[in-house]
């Protein structure tokens, strides 16, 4: 799932007409911009470098996820992130919002709106924990179970085919790289360690923490 830790589920574009128009306008601009031909191709002699090339690949995957999410919304009535939640609730009935957030690696508040929409549309049923009345538990309705049973035309179906053509060791390596990136991009972890300022020689001052470069 395209989710930034602590942020919104970035590929949940749904069918927002304004977002769709903006993307279509952008694509038309790229397609008709003849100046792009002057840039020339990316070759071994003119590489982007590891960072930009990796970002380019991630951008492409994110764009594909957003496009797939819109198609799923039109066909199944749920977006990509909504479908992911449906699959998880189907696998773990009576799951809490906190447990869903932990699995998806997002802040619980990120899922609040999404869960409310699924409940309002009759896809999920919301109950209350008999032990802790403040804790909401979710299960699939009959409508949600029907969405859960769909196997074609989904993000998982495309990934299943793609991953099936890649050696297992390569899939694991990619997963490990993405996990390292996720951790690095988490709030409070992405910044480089500050470099301590050099000590001033001859200073007799004691106590206090040394100043750091900003």
Strand content: 5-15%
Top-tier CATH class of the domain at 49-185:
Mainly Alpha
Return Rg in Å: 23 Å
N-to-C CA distance: 34 Å
Mean pLDDT metric: 78
The strand line-up of the biggest sheet is 1-3-2
Structure, explained:
With 214 residues, the chain is mainly alpha-helical. The protein has a domain at 49-185: Arc Repressor Mutant, subunit A (Orthogonal Bundle). The chain is built from eight helices and three strands; from the N terminus they run αααβααββααα. It has helices at 17-32, 50-76, 80-91, 97-104, 108-120, 142-149, 155-164, 168-185, and strands at residues 95-96, 124-128, 136-140. A hairpin with a 7-residue loop joins strand 2 and strand 3. Helix 3 (80-91) crosses helix 6. The longest helix is centred in the first third of the chain and has 27 residues, at 50-76. The chain is elongated and about 65 Å long. The two termini are 34 Å apart.
How is this fold's topology laid out?
Blueprint: H1 17-32, H2 50-76, H3 80-91, E1 95-96, H4 97-104, H5 108-120, E2 124-128, E3 136-140, H6 142-149, H7 155-164, H8 168-185
Antiparallel strand pairs: 1-3, 2-3
Helix pairs in contact: 3-6, 4-5
Put the structure in a nutshell:
This protein is mainly α and 214 residues long.
Provide the descriptors you would attach to this structure in a database record.
mainly alpha; 214 residues; single chain; Arc Repressor Mutant, subunit A; disordered N terminus
């Amino acid at each position: 799932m395209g989710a930034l830790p602590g942020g919104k589920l970035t590929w949940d574009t749904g069918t927002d007409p304004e977002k769709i128009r903006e993307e279509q306008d952008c694509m038309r601009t790229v397609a008709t911009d003849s100046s792009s031909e002057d840039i020339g191709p990316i070759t071994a002699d003119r590489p982007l470098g590891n960072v930009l090339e990796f970002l380019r690949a991630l951008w492409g995957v994110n764009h594909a996820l957003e496009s797939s999410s819109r198609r799923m919304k039109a066909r199944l009535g749920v977006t990509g992130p909504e479908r992911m939640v449906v699959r998880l609730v189907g696998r773990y009935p009576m799951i809490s919002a906190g447990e869903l957030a932990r699995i998806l690696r997002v802040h619980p508040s990120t899922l609040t709106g999404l869960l409310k929409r699924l409940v309002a549309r009759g896809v999920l049923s919301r109950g209350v924990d008999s032990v802790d009345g403040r804790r909401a538990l979710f299960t699939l309705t009959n409508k949600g179970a029907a969405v859960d049973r769909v196997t074609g035309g989904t993000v998982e179906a495309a990934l299943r085919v793609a991953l099936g053509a890649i050696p297992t060791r390569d899939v694991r390596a990619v997963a490990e790289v993405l996990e390292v990136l996720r951790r690095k991009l988490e709030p409070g972890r992405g910044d480089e360690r500050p470099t301590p300022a050099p000590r001033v020689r001859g200073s007799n001052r004691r106590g206090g923490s040394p100043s750091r470069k900003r």
